Amino acid sequence: MAALYEGYTLCGLVPDQNLSSSGIQGIEEERDSDHVVVTDSARSVTLYKVSDQKLLGSWTVKQGQTLTCSAVFNPQTKEYVAVSDNKVIRIWKEEDVLLDKAFKATVSSDIWMIHCVHGGEPVVLFKRGAVRLLDSLLAAPQQTIEEVLAQEENIRWSTNIVAERQQFVIFTTEQKGDHFLYLQRLNPNTLQRYRLEREEPGVSPLSFSTSYRDKHIHLLYLYPNGHVYQSVVSVQGLAAEEGAQALPLPRNLLLGLPVGDGLLEAASAMVLDEAHVAVVGVPHPSAGAGKDFLCIWNTNFQTLQAGKEMAGKIYGQLWSYSNKVFIPHGKTLSVIPFECPKSSLASALGKLRQAKTEESKAPAFVPSWNNILHGEKAQPSRTVETRKTRTTRKTQSTPSLTIDQVLELIKTAPIEEVQKEVEGLLARADLQDLQPSVGQLASTLVSRSLADPAFYAPSTLSQLVHTRYLCHSVCPDLVLLALEKKDYFLCQLCLQFFPDIPEAVTCACLKTFISMPDVDAEKASLEPDSVSFMETLISRERGQVGLQNGFSSTSCEEDGSNDVSGHQTRTQAKKKAAPPELICPVGLHKAVLLNEVLLTAYSETFLLPHLKDLSSQHVVLFLQYLKFLYLKYSQDDSLHMPGCRSPSLAQVMDWVCLMLDAHFTVLVMTPEAKGLLLSLHNFVKSQVRLVSELGKIEVSLQELKKTKVKKDVGQYSIEVIELF
Amino acid sequence: MGEFKVHRVRFFDYMPSAIRAMAFNHRTERLAVARSDGAVEIFNFTDSYYQEKVIPGRDGRAVEALCWVGQRLFSAGLNGEITEYDLENLRPQYIVEAYGGPIWTISCNSQGTHLAVGCEDGTVKLFEILKEKIQFQRNLDRQKSRIISLCWHPSGAQIAAGMMDMIKIFDTETGRATHRLLVERGVGTSKTREVVVWSVAFLSDNTIVSGDSAGKVQIWDGSMGTLVRTHLVTKWDVLALSVSQDESSLIAGTSEGTVVQFQFLSSTVDRQDPEWVRTRTFKSHSHDVRALVLTDTAVVSGGMDTQLSVRPLLDKVEKNTQEAAQRKIAFPHRNLVSCAKKAGLLLFQFPDHLELWRLGESDGNGKPGDSLPLKRKPEKLLQLKRKGEDHICCSAVSPCGGWLVYSTVSSVRLYKLQYSNNSVSITKVSKLPRELQSVHQLCFSADSSRLFAASSQSSVVVVALNQLECKYLQTLRHKSGSRQPVHLLFPSEDGRWLATANTDCQIHVYNLQKMKLHCAVPVHSSCPTAIAIHPTSSRLVSVHADQQIFEFSLLQQEYTEWSRKLQKQGLHSVWLKRDTPVTSVGFSPRNPTHILLNDTFMFCIIDQSLPLPESRTLLLNQTVLRSLPGPERARQSHAFKICKNFQNVLSVALLDDLSLAVVERPLLDVMAQLPAPVRQKKFAT
C-alpha cells in the first residue's frame, strides 16, 4: 500500500487577495533531490534545502519587473535561468547577490517557459510554439522566431523529458475548445501534433502529467468531471511528416474519480509511478464534501491507497520530486513524503483476510507455544508493553538503524548481524508504519540468499512472514527458496499467510512434501496448533473409536464393508484388528504439511496441469492420505474445531476428485492402486446415495411448501368454513 | 358445531389517511392524533389504547399541529385558523383566524395561559387562553422567514422558534429575539437548499434541541446561543422531536421511518457531566415519521404510512407482559361498514362518499374449505357523494335495505331506496325533524321503522319512518349527568330495547315501548367496544376495551349466571393478550347459545353451553379439534371457537340467511396505495 507520511511546511505563501492562485509559479529541482528552487508569481526566486526546511538563497528582480516563468537550474553550468517580462532571459549563479547585475538577454518573441531536466540542456519554449535550445538562442538573441501555433491557439501546459538520449518538449494547446498535444523532438527536430478527444462540451483538462517508460510517453490528464485519461505516444514511431493534419490521440479512461456533485475547479493529477497517481483537489470518497484531500490512487486496481486532508484552500498545483510531493494549500507550501511500493492485488485485498484470521488467533496475552518454541521473535507481539521493553533493550545495546540502512546492511553484512538488525527494526517500529518496507526487507533477504548459498536467515524470514504484510506477489521467490532450503516451517507459514500462492507453487510444495522421507519431515519443527490437531486425529485411530455421548459410530465401516463382499463376518474381523485404512499412511509432520496444501486456495483449471507432474506412487500415497482423512472425518464430526486450521471434508473431497481427474488413466493401470480405487468408488457410491436421499427429502419438503401456498383470494369469494 | 357460508369481501377500498400531528395529554393520558384529511382522533392510553372519539375532518382543513391545554384541545393548520374542539359533541367548537397566513405550529406554555402559533409570514403570535375562547395578545418580532416549529421554555419566559436556516430565541416579555442560532445546511446538492428546522425542543436547563431537513439532531446551549453537539441521524429529514417529561430522554423521527432515541447520560460511570447520547433506533414505519410522542413508557409514532405505532421502552416496562408488546393501530375501532341483513347489502363509509354493494350469490353447497362458484357477482348499486365540505362521520343502511342515512357534523341526510330489477332509485327525504342535529351515531330498528340517532349530551333521538314520511317521536335521555357522546347504539331484534354506550363507559338500556330509560348497566372501568341484546332472551352482552365480556339480563337487571361464571374463572390469558378491540357482537338465530364476536384478526363464536377454557388449555384449538374423531372432539371443545382464517377484518355480520359477510382490508393493499418511501441505498442496488 502506498503511504503518505507526516508532512512539513517548506515556506509560507502570499496568495492572491481572492485566493485564486497560490502565489507560486513553479518549483524546480536544483542540484539534487533535496534542493528546490521556488519561483513566486511576482518577483522572487528562492532556493531551499528541503529536508532542513532551510532557505539557502533568494533573488529578486527590480520593482516593476515580474518573473514570467519559473526559474530553472542548469546542473551542467550550475546556473539559474529565469525570464522576466516575457522577453528578458536572466542567468545567474548562486554566488550572485543582485539579479540586476547578472547576465541578461532580450529576445524577439514572448517566452512561455524554460525547461531544463537533468541530463538535458535548457530549452526555451516560446508562446507561439517555437522551441530553441538556450545556447543557440543566446548565440543570436534577436533571431526571428517562427510561429508554430495557429491564431487563437494558446499553450496551456508544457514539460520537457529526456527519453532514449533524446530531448522532447511536450506541450498542450487550446484552440476554440479543442485541445492539442505537441511533441517536439530536438536534434533532429520533429514536431508531431495530436488532437485530444473531446470530453463533454465546455470541459477542458485541468491538469496534465507525463511519464516516460517502456519507450513510450504516457500522458495523464484530468478533466473536471473526475475522469483521468491516459494516452500513450510511442517515442520511436514519431513520424517525420511535419505540418500534417493533427492525429487523433487515442486515450483510455484510467480512473473515474468521485467528484461529488458539480465539477472540479482546481484539481490536479500527477503520475507517481506506473501504478500510482497523486490527486489533489478531488473530494475523498468517504469524507464529506468541503474537505480537500491529497490522495494516492492505484490505477491498476482503481483503489484509493492513501489520503491526507489538506487544510486551507487547494489551488490545484502539485509538484513531485523524488518521493516528495510539494503542495501549496492555504497559506503554506507543504512537503509530504510518500511511498509507493510495488502493488499487488493480494496486498490490496490482503487486509481483509488478515483481519479474519486474526480472530481465530489466541489473544496476545495468552502465552503462545510459538513464542516458547521459536523464540518470541517468531510472533511480534502486539502489546505495547513488550514492545517498549524490547525497544529499551535494543536502544541500550546498539544505535538504531533506519530501514534504508538495514536494507544496505542486508546486502553485505554477515548473517548474525542481519538477523539482529532486522529483528531490532521490527521490534522498534510500529508494524503499521513498517508495512511498505516489510516487502522490501523480505525481497532483499531472499535475493541475497539466492545469490549467496551460505546466507539464509530462517528465523528472520519467518518473522517477516508472521507480520502478515507479506504476500507471494511481493516476494515471489520466498516459497521456492524455503523449499530449496528445506525450511518446512517457513513453507507452512507461507502457505498459511500468503493469500495468493500460484497453483504451480502449491503443486511444487505438494510434490516436495509427498516425496520427502518421513525422517526429514519429523526433524522439522512445525506450527504446534496444526501438529496437535493431526496428533489427535492419529491418536484416535489407535485408542479405539472414541465413544461420544455413549454412542460409538461405526456406520462408516459398515458402509465400507458393503462394497467388496458385504459379509458380516468380515466386518467383525475388521473391527477387532484396527482397520488398515484407519492407519495414517504418512508421518505426523508430513501430514501436517499436506494439510497446509489442502487448505490453500486454488482454481481447478490452473492446478490440474501441474498435478499431472506427480509420479504415480506419490499420487497413490496422497490419495491414501486423503482417504484416511475422509474416513476419519465421516466417522467423527467432532474433529472439526472452530478456529482450528484443519481441512474440511469438502476440501478433502475436492482434492480427491482433482487427483483422480489428473491421474485416472495412470491409476487404472497401476496394480497397487486397485484397492484404493475400489474404496474411493465406494465413497462415491455413498455420496451418491446421500445426495439421492437428500433429493427425496427435497421433493417432500417442496410438497410441504406447496401446501403452504396461500390461495390468492380475489376481491370477492364465497367460502365455506367450519368451526368445531 | 357449525358450517358457515362466508362472503369474503375485499372490495372495500378503505384508505386511512396519513398521521400529521399528535399531542399527548400526560394528565389524562389521552393521545390526540390529527390526520391529513383533518380528522382528529382521541385514544385513551389508560384503556388499552381504545379510540374513544373521532372528530371528522373537513375539506380544506389541514391540521398541522395539535396542542392540549388542560382538557382542551387546540389545533392549527395551513388554512391559517386555530380551532378548539368540542370533545363532547365531536366537532370544532370555534375557529379563530390568526391573520398570519398558514400556521405551521402551535405550542402552549406549561402554565397553560398562552398559546403561541408560528405563521408563514414570519410572526409568532401569542394568544391568551380564556374560558371558552382565546384572544389575540400580540406578535413577537416579525422574522423574514416562516416559523416552522415552536417550543416554550418551561418557565414561559422564552420561546425557541425553528425557521429556515436558523433558530431564534424570543423573550416573551419584550417580544425581542435574543439569540440567533444558525443551522448548517446539508452537504452536497442540498447545500444550495435552505435547511428547514422541522422541530425544536426547549429544555428547562436552557438546552435547545433541533431536528432539521439536513438530517441532523442538534443540541444547542440556549443561554449562550452555541452549538453543543450535532448528531447526523439520517440522510433525509428529521421531522419530529419529542422529549420525555423528566427531560432525560428524547426521540427524533425521520423520513426513513426510523425513530432515534437520545438519552441524557454520563459517558462513563464515574463522570458527572451527562450529555445527550444516541442510544436506540426503532424502525416502526415504512414512511416519514411525522408525529411523535414520548410517554413515560413508550415511543408513540405516526406518519405517512397511516399506522399509529406504540412501542414500549423495554427499560420502562416489565418484560414479557402485555404492556411490553408493540402495538400498531392500523384500522379505526368503530365500524365503517353497515350491513342490511335482510337484503344482503353492504354500505361502506368513506370520508367523502358512501358505497352500497349487493353481495354475490352462489348455488350449491361445498365442503368446508372450498370456495363456491359464483352465480352472481357482487354489484355496486350506488355511490353517493356527500354534500358540503364536512366529512361523513356516521352512516347506516336499514336492515331491509330501503333506507340510507348519513351524517356530517353539520347535517343529517336520509334517503329512500327502491329496487326494481337491476336499477336502484334514490330519493332524498326532504323534511327532516330539526331534532336530528349534531349526530354521531346512527342506526335503524330491526323492522326498519325507526331511526335512532345519538345526539348531543348522550341523548338519543328516535324518528319514525314510513312511506315518505319521517316523524320525530322522542328524545331519550338518561340522568347520570354524563355529557360524553354515545359511540355505540344497539336496538334489539324484537323492538323492545335500545342499548347505548358512551365514552364514560356507561351503558344505558331504554324501553322502546314505554320510550323511557329501563336501566343502567353497572359501569365497568373500561370502555365498551361492542354491545348487543339477545333477540329472544333480552340479555345484553357487552365487550370492553380490556377484552372483558359481560352478559347482563335486562329482565332481572343483574349479571347472568354465565357472566358471573366467566368473571369468576377469568378469561383465558391468550384472549386477554389480543391487542385489537372486539368491534361487533352478534347472535345466531340457529343456536341461541351462540355469541358471535370479531376483532381485526379473528372471528369467534362463544358457545355458552360449553365449558369455559381452563387457563392451561389451548385457546386456539380449532386445528386440533379438526383432526380429532367425533366423541373426542366433543370432550376437548370449549366455549371459545376462534377462527383466524380472516385477517385485517373491518367488519363481520351475520345475514338473515345465516351466511357471514366478512369485510377484509389487507394491509398490503393499503401499503400499495401509499406513495413510494424515501429511497434508501440497499446493498447491491
Q: What can you see in these coordinates?
A:
- The complex is a heterodimer of chains A (724) and B (685).
- Chain A has 724 residues and is of the alpha+beta class.
- Among the domains of chain A are: 357-501, no CATH class; 533-690, no CATH class.
- In chain A, 36% of the residues lie in helices and 25% in strands.
- In chain A, strands 1, 2, 27, 28 and 29 form a 5-stranded antiparallel β-sheet that branches. In chain A, strands 14-15-16-17-21 form a 5-stranded mixed β-sheet, with no helix packed on it.
- In chain A, strand 7 (67-74) and strand 8 form a beta hairpin.
- Chain A is elongated, with a radius of gyration of 35 Å.
- Chain A starts with a strand and ends with a strand.
- Chain B folds into 3 domains: 21-253, 7 Propeller (Methylamine Dehydrogenase, Chain H); 336-360 and 375-476, 7 Propeller (Methylamine Dehydrogenase, Chain H), CATH 2.130.10.10; 478-664, Methylamine Dehydrogenase, Chain H.
- With 685 residues, chain B is mainly β.
- Helix content of chain B is 5%, strand content 48%.
- The longest helix of chain B has 9 residues, at 561-569.
- In chain B, the strands form 15 sheets. In chain B, strands 2-3-4-5 form a 4-stranded antiparallel β-sheet, with no helix packed on it.
- Chain B contains 5 helices and 58 strands.
- The two termini of chain B are 54 Å apart.
What is the element layout, followed by pairings?
The complex is a heterodimer of chains A (724) and B (685).
Chain A: E1 3-4, E2 8-12, E3 24-29, E4 35-40, E5 44-49, E6 54-60, E7 67-74, E8 79-84, E9 88-93, E10 103-106, E11 111-115, E12 123-126, E13 131-133, H1 134-139, E14 153-163, E15 166-175, E16 178-186, E17 190-196, E18 207-213, E19 216-222, E20 227-234, E21 247-249, E22 252-256, E23 268-271, E24 276-280, E25 292-298, E26 303-310, E27 319-320, E28 324-329, E29 332-339, H2 345-360, H3 369-374, H4 384-397, H5 403-412, H6 415-428, H7 431-451, H8 458-466, H9 478-484, H10 488-497, H11 503-515, H12 518-523, H13 528-542, H14 555-564, H15 568-576, H16 588-599, H17 604-611, H18 616-635, H19 649-669, H20 674-708, E30 716-723
Parallel strand pairs in A: 17-21
Antiparallel strand pairs in A: 1-29, 2-29, 3-4, 4-5, 5-6, 7-8, 8-9, 9-10, 11-12, 12-13, 14-15, 15-16, 16-17, 18-19, 19-20, 20-22, 23-24, 24-25, 25-26, 27-28, 28-29
Helix pairs in contact in A: 5-6, 5-7, 6-8, 8-10, 9-10, 10-16, 11-16, 11-17, 13-16, 14-20, 17-19, 18-19
Chain B: E1 2-9, E2 19-25, E3 30-35, E4 40-44, E5 50-55, E6 63-69, E7 72-77, E8 81-86, E9 91-97, E10 103-108, E11 114-119, E12 124-130, E13 133-139, E14 149-152, E15 158-162, E16 166-171, E17 177-182, E18 197-202, E19 207-212, E20 216-221, E21 226-232, E22 238-243, E23 249-254, E24 258-265, E25 275-283, E26 289-294, E27 298-303, E28 308-312, E29 327-329, E30 337-340, E31 345-349, E32 353-358, E33 361-362, E34 371-372, E35 374-376, E36 379-385, E37 394-397, E38 403-407, E39 412-420, E40 423-428, E41 441-444, E42 450-454, E43 460-466, E44 469-476, E45 486-491, E46 497-502, E47 507-511, E48 516-521, E49 528-533, E50 539-544, E51 549-553, E52 558-559, H1 561-569, H2 573-576, E53 584-587, E54 594-599, E55 602-607, H3 622-627, H4 630-636, E56 640-643, E57 649-654, E58 660-664, H5 667-672
Parallel strand pairs in B: 1-58
Antiparallel strand pairs in B: 2-3, 3-4, 4-5, 6-7, 7-8, 8-9, 10-11, 11-12, 12-13, 14-15, 15-16, 16-17, 18-19, 19-20, 20-21, 22-23, 23-24, 24-25, 26-27, 27-28, 28-29, 30-31, 31-32, 32-36, 33-35, 37-38, 38-39, 39-40, 41-42, 42-43, 43-44, 45-46, 46-47, 47-48, 49-50, 50-51, 51-52, 53-54, 54-55, 55-56, ...
Domain Nucleolar protein 11 N-terminal (chain A): 1-338
Main location (chain A): nucleus
Protein name (chain A): Nucleolar protein 11
